[in-house]
Specification:
heterodimer; A: mainly alpha; Cytochrome Bc1 Complex, Chain D, domain 2; globular; B: mainly beta; Porin; twelve-stranded antiparallel barrel
Chain lengths: 124, 299
């Protein structure tokens, strides 16, 4: 029993580290925000406007092709972003992640955040 | 006690009405405030160069123009650092460099809340001839601006300033409140002041067109700021208070123009003065200057 204790601690720590490594921004999105849908989705002009806004505000870090800089600024054409709901993305844009260099975009009008999200959805 | 001149009150009420009745359908993003800070910080790696000018004619003094040139750098997503270089020219007197200010703004909380605090710390080394009126504190009054340059330039002020900035973005409105305390590092009391502001873009959604003179490029708002006395006389006696409609225009190529008339609300205030701001933003300046990506940099 006593001998097994260090092994159990090791397992627990490894599992914790694994969870931390796989945790994404979307895990912390409040249920109400997670469930929101993009009210401007479906109109082709929404993604066109989103593309313009992306160029203005996001491109400098996430690159023109949204593939990121290969370092701290991630690609937005990943399974993680595709798997997020519109609500998750809107919440994350509002919040930002200041500690890791992602600014908060709460200063953009809400409609513009939805337009950007429609553009992200239109990316191959 | 505030002695409000009735015609100024009427004018202020009219401007307030005009502002409230503007057809707000939606926006531009940078706040056009001159005195008030919101919780917007400069994006990390960006450098904004802005000139803010104040033009006035005090009742008993000479007309003047003051210019503050501001270099604002996003050091981190949660920390912006700024250097101001101030100068002024007074009619019939002289043109002076009046000093510098170095300020830092920190967001202590890494996420967005209903009310977002920002801590502001500033050191300034300016002469009493400074006329930028970038904040009003203590018992600042109009007659301070009448002192001739030759006399005022000799009085140097080494001051520290702390501000608590609270700011919220609600339904595309920004609402900001600043509490200011300033201390001359010599033998002088702490001076207090406030600045509050609201702003809203004229149009929220982007039209998807490249346009310059369209509603989404404009943001309008209202600022109010003034002095709240000091630790030797914590009263509103002989304090200045201003109400200032503001408008900002996002121009192409990362340029921004802003304009604001300030209207004095008390006898100790200037009747009115005007401000114009022009800003240019250089994005990702450190990568451009260093000519390479900062590998492995932890923001």
């Amino acid at each position: 029993m006593v001998k097994r204790f260090p092994a159990a601690v090791f397992l627990a720590l490894s599992f914790g580290a694994f969870l931390a490594a796989t945790a994404s921004h979307w895990d912390t999105v409040p249920a109400r925000d997670h469930a929101r849908t993009n009210p401007l989705a479906g109109k082709p002009e929404t993604a066109v406007a989103g593309a313009l806004l992306y160029r203005e505000h996001c491109q400098q870090c996430h690159a023109a092709d949204a593939q990121g800089d290969g370092q701290k600024k991630p690609s937005l054409r990943t399974a993680s972003v595709r798997g997020a709901t519109d609500g998750d993305l809107e919440w994350f844009l509002r919040q930002g992640d200041l500690k890791h260099g992602m600014p908060s975009w709460s200063n953009l009008p809400q409609a513009q955040r939805w337009q950007i999200i429609a553009y992200l959805r239109s990316l191959p | 006690m505030l002695l409000l001149a009735s015609h100024r009150l009427r004018l202020a009420a009219f401007l307030l009405l005009l502002f409230v009745s503007l057809p707000f359908r939606g926006t531009a993003q940078d706040k056009p405030y001159f005195v008030t800070y919101s919780h917007d910080l400069e994006e990390p790696g960006n450098l904004e160069v802005e000139t803010k000018s104040a033009i006035a004619r005090p009742e008993h003094g000479h007309h003047f123009g003051a210019l503050a040139t501001e270099l604002e750098y996003g050091a981190r997503a949660w920390w912006t650092t700024e250097l101001y270089l101030d100068g002024q020219t007074t009619g019939g007197q002289s043109t002076l460099f009046t000093g510098f200010r170095w300020e830092n703004r920190f967001r202590p909380l890494m996420h967005e809340y209903a009310v977002n605090p920002v801590l502001y710390v500033e050191f300034e080394n300016i002469s009493a001839a400074d006329k930028n009126v970038l904040e009003v504190v203590g018992h600042d009054v109009e007659s301070d601006l009448d002192v001739p340059n030759a006399v005022a330039r000799a009085e140097h002020q080494h001051e520290g300033e702390l501000k608590l900035i609270l700011s919220s973005n609600v339904h595309d409105w920004n609402i900001s409140e600043n509490f200011i305390s300033e201390k001359n590092l010599g033998h002088a009391p702490w001076e207090f002041g406030y600045a509050v502001a609201v702003a809203h873009p004229l149009r929220a959604a982007s039209s998807g067109r490249e346009c310059t003179l369209c509603a989404e490029k404009f943001i309008a708002g209202l600022e109010a700021y003034g002095g709240l006395g000091d630790t030797w006389d914590l009263s509103l006696r002989q304090t200045s208070h201003y109400l200032a409609p503001v408008v900002g225009w996002q121009l192409p190529a990362h340029m921004r123009l802003s304009f604001s008339p300030s209207l004095g609300m008390t006898r100790s205030s200037m009747d009115q003065f005007y401000r114009v701001g022009f800003a240019y933003e250089f994005s990702d300046i450190d990568n451009k200057l260093l000519g390479h990506k900062r590998k492995g940099k932890v923001w």
